Amino acid sequence: MTQFLNEKADIVTEAIDGLVAASGGALARLDGYPHIRVVLRNDWDKSRVALVSGGGSGHEPSHGGFVGPGMLTAAVCGDVFASPSVDAVLAGILAVTGPAGCLLIVKNYTGDRLNFGLAAERARAFGLKVRMVIVDDDIALPDLPQARGLAGTLFVHKIAGALAEGGADLDTVADRAESVIARTRSIGMSLDTCTVPGAPKEARIPAGMAELGLGIHGEPGVEQVPFDTARNAMAAVSEKLAAGMGDGSHVALLNNLGGCSVLETAVLAHELFSGPLAGKVTAVVGPAALMTSLDMRGFSISLLEAAPDEVAALGADVPMAAWPGLSQITSIATAALPDGLSPIRPPASDHPDTRAFLTHVCQIMINAEADLNALDAKSGDGDTGSTLANAARALQSAMDDLPLADHTQLFRALGQELSQTMGGSSGVLLAIFFAAAGDAASSGVSTIDALKAGLTRMQEIGGAELGDRTMVDAMHPALDALPGGIPAAAAAARAGANATAAMLQAKAGRAAYVNAAQLEGHNDPGAEAVARLFEQLS
C-alpha cells in the first residue's frame, strides 16, 4: 500500500518535528535524535508533578499530541509499534522532573513495562521521586494474566494531568491514576488490519467479517464475527462492556483506530448513545482519533465509571487540539421548519389503480439500485441508484398521505415529497418536473402533455438539452413516443439511453467533470434509470 512517507528510518523523527513545528512554540523536543525522541512542554518549570507517558509510535495523536497543560509533561516515542529505549525514557524523566516528582503512565506491554520500569529505577538512583502505573484496560481476553493497555489510558492522562496541574502531590496523583485504571474497561473492533510501514499488510479478516477485541498493534482479537451494520457492531462491543459494568453513570471514550471516516464514527456514536448502553453512558469523549493503530479501519470504546470530580477533570479545557473535550449526552433537539417550508398538503385520498402503479414504479427503482450505483461509479460518485431507491422508499412510506384520486394534486404532491426526501440535483429536477406537470394538469391538458410541460420546465431550469448526456436523452424521446403506448415509449427510452454511451462529453450534471475515456461505452445512469422504468412498466 502506498503511503505518504519518506524513508522508514526517518518516519518518527520527521513526525515529531512536524508536531513540534506546528505547536506554535508550545512544544520542544530533546536533542539526541534518532535514539532519544522525547516531546516535552516548552513552558515547564518543574514546580509540579511531571507526567510522562509514551510507547511505540503509530498511535498518533497519542502520545505527543497530548503533551501540554493539564495532560502530559513529556511523551517518549519509540519506533512504530516498538517501545522506546531505557535511555530515551530516562532522558524524558530527567528533563522534566523536579522536587515534586514524576508519574510514569505505561500501557501494559512487556517492552514498555521493562524499559519504563528500569528507567524509573535509574531515575530513583539519581534521587528523584518516581512512581509508575500500568494501564491494563483491555477486556477482550479475560483469561489473559496481563491485560493490554488501550485507549482508556487517555482517561488516566487527563484526570492525573488535571490533578498535577492543580498542584496535587505525587502520591495523590498516582493513587488516583491507579483508581481510574481499576474502573476503566476498553474493547475494540475492526474491519481490517493496519498497514505497518515497510511490511506487507496482513489480510486475516475476510470480507463480511469484523474482528472483536484486537489490539492497537494489530494483534488478533478474541473472535471474528459476521459484520452487516454499525448497529450490530456496536451491540457486540456493548455486550462485552456491559458484563461486569458498575451501576453508576459512565463516561465513554469513542476512539477511531485510524481508518474510519468521520461519517462512520458519527454513526457509531449514534448507536452507542441509543443502543444497549443508553442511559448508562452519560458523557462522551470524542468520537475522534485519539489512540490509533496507524490506518486500522476500526474503533474502540473505553468506559470509566467516573466520580463527579473526575468528570470535571475530563471536561477541563486544555489547549491541545488533539483532545476533543467532554460532552454530556442529551436527547436530540429538534426545531420546527421555518414558515414556508412546511408544505400545505392536499387531502389524502385513495385510488387502488394509482396506488398499485406508483408502488410498482417505486419497486422498479429499488430493484435497480445496485446496478445504477455500479454504472454511476464509472462516471460519477456511485450514488444514482441509492438516490432514486431512497426516494422510492420514502414515497412508499408516504403513500397513505397522497391524493391518489386527484391526479392534478398528485403531481404537485409528488414534487413536494421528492424535494424533501430525494438528495442531489436529481431530486430538485424531478421536483420541478412534477410541480410543473401539476400546474399544466390543472389547466386541463392531458396527462401526457402535462408530463411534457414538466420536462420542458425541468430543461429550462436545469439547462440540459438532448445530446447533453443526461436523463433527458431517454425521457424526451419516451414522452414523445408515449401517445403510441408504453412499449413504444420504452423502445424510445432505451434507444436514447444507449445513445449516451457514445456521447464522450457530458454538458450537464456531475459527469461534465469526467474525461471522455471514463464515459465511453457506459450509459448515463439517469438515462438508464428512465429506460429501465419504461421497460419494466411495458
From TrEMBL:
Record's InterPro entries? DhaK_dom, DhaL_dom, DhaL_dom_sf, Dihydroxyacetone_Kinase
Q: Which GO terms describe its cellular component?
A: cytosol
Q: Which residues does the UniProt record annotate as the domain DhaL?
A: 352-538
Q: Name one GO molecular function term.
A: ATP binding
The UniProt entry's GO biological process terms, in alphabetical order, are:
glycerol catabolic process
Q: At the top level of its lineage, which domain of life is listed?
A: Bacteria
Xref: SMART domains? Dak2
User: What residues does the DhaK domain cover?
Assistant: 7-323
Q: Name one Pfam family in it.
A: Dak1
The record's section on PANTHER family has:
TRIOKINASE/FMN CYCLASE, TRIOKINASE_FMN CYCLASE
Protein name (Swiss-Prot/TrEMBL): Dihydroxyacetone kinase
The organism is Actibacterium mucosum KCTC 23349
